[in-house]
Prior knowledge:
It contains 3 helices and 5 strands, in the order H-H-E-E-E-E-E-H. The chain has 105 residues and is of the alpha+beta class. It folds into 2 domains: 1-41, no CATH class; 46-105, Irregular (HU Protein, Chain A), CATH 4.10.520.10. The strands form 2 sheets. Strands 1-2-5 form a 3-stranded antiparallel beta sheet. The chain has a two-stranded antiparallel ribbon with strand order 3-4. The radius of gyration is 19 Å and the shape is extended. The two termini are 12 Å apart. The relative contact order is 0.11.
Amino acid sequence: xxxxxxxxxxxxxxxxxxxxxxxxxxxxxxxxxxxxxxxxxxxxxxxxxxxxxxxxxxxxxxxxxxxxxxxxxxxxxxxxxxxxxxxxxxxxxxxxxxxxxxxxx
Length: 105
């Protein structure tokens, strides 16, 4: 089964079909939305950041714990992995319901 990849341009074309806006307007709006989301997720003043988009899902920046006993699978060497931040996505109700449907061929 082949994976289908959509680019930002593909999403802008889809928005154009739904809204009737020009393609460059769709791309400008998308650029502003993504830039705003990035700014909010990279906010250093907050320990944890959460962006909730109703009917879509939640993006949340969480702190991961340091792993002092991690192992490099290639060399089998024990290494230390420092604590860092990671982004977690939790699907909203509509997407979760769609994904939970059984897929029979």
